[in-house]
Amino acid sequence: MIKEVESKTIIHKHKKAFPVLQDVNIYRGCTIGCKYCFAQYSHYYLGLDNFFKDIIVKTNSAECLERELYKKRNSKEQIKIGGITDSYQHIEKKYLLMPKLLKVLKKYKIPIFLSTKSDLILRDLDLIKELAKVISVDVAVSISGIDEETAKIIEPGAPSPHKRIETLGQFTSFCRSTSLLNMPILPFLSDSIVELDKIFELTQKNNIDNLVTYPLHLRNKKVKNEFLNLIEIHFPEKVKRMVDLFDSSGNNEYYKELNRKIFSLRKKYDMFDEYLP
User: Fold this and answer.
1) pLDDT of 221
2) What rounded mean pLDDT belongs to the chain?
3) Which helix (H) or strand (E) holds 97?
4) How confident is the model at residue 187, as a pLDDT?
5) At what angle do helices 221-234 and 236-247 cross, to 10 degrees?
6) What percentage of residues in the chain have a pLDDT greater than 70?
7) pLDDT score at 109
8) Which of 96, 113, 112, 116 is nearest to 32 (CA)?
9) Residue 66, CA atoms < 13 Å, CB-side half-sphere
10) Radius of gyration of the CA atoms of the chain, in A
11) In this structure, what DSSP letter does residue 48 have?
12) For the residues of 114-134, what is the DSSP string, one character each?
């Protein structure tokens, strides 16, 4: 189901930085379909069952943003675009909301942090470049690992991880910062030193400024159960260890070992910087 609505407000405030204090989401629900997605719970409050198929399109996003920015036109507080749902998910090809949004942001010279999993962002490269001439622009692309076959199962609607990394590299020359978000790292699937090393190598090769890492957490019971069911189907040899990890309160050693791996790679590649707003 795709439902078109006119939104009354578009800028959402946070009490804590995420990584900034306000964001804009032009869609609710996401066709990229990442099976670990923490935002799935937000659909439950709307009475919608399928976060990946029941999509709400805020057709007046640009007009709504302009109205709100005009009211506080002396403020230049950074806005994150796509904090909950991906602004460049598949239906953006049809609705073309982002070009209008970027033009409004340029008009009011609002700094942005733009996060996506999609190479569709390349469609708007010239618009983002124009915005970056007048205000700071930070672009981030996320992956959960580098293995192509695993990505097809866990993130079925996203381009290949290699394609995403190459896409991000095209923004480095003109954005204030580019960040590869290795988030979440999947336990026993994408946390080997070999795979993590390859991600660091490709980050450096593509001249990306920052590599941010964060392990998978499954805090919502429904999301956890559905994710573990998927693992049982596709990776049956991994499921017991994964269940034990997420059902145990004594899992600190796993995270300590993961941090040791990442720190050793940060030293190897001299990559310690992470995105700062």
Assistant:
1) 87
2) 91
3) helix 97-108
4) 95
5) 160
6) 94
7) 95
8) 116
9) 11
10) 19
11) -
12) EEES-GGGGGGHHHHHHHHTT
66-100: pLDDT as tens digits: 999 998 876 888 999 988 899 999 999 999 999 99
Please, are residues 40 and 101 in contact by the beta-carbon 8 Å criterion? no
* Torsion-angle region of 218 (φ positive above 0: left; ψ -120 to 50: alpha; else: beta): beta
DSSP 174-200: TSSEEEEEEEEEPTTTS-SHHHHHHHH
Report the 10 Å Cβ neighbour count for 168: 28
pTM for this predicted structure: 0.92
Mean pLDDT of 5-27: 87
- Euclidean distance between CA atoms 130 and 60, whole angstroms: 23
How much of the chain is helix, strand and coil, in % rounded to 5?
45, 15, 40
Sheet holding 55-58, edge to edge: 2-5, 55-58, 27-28
CA 262 to chain centre: 20
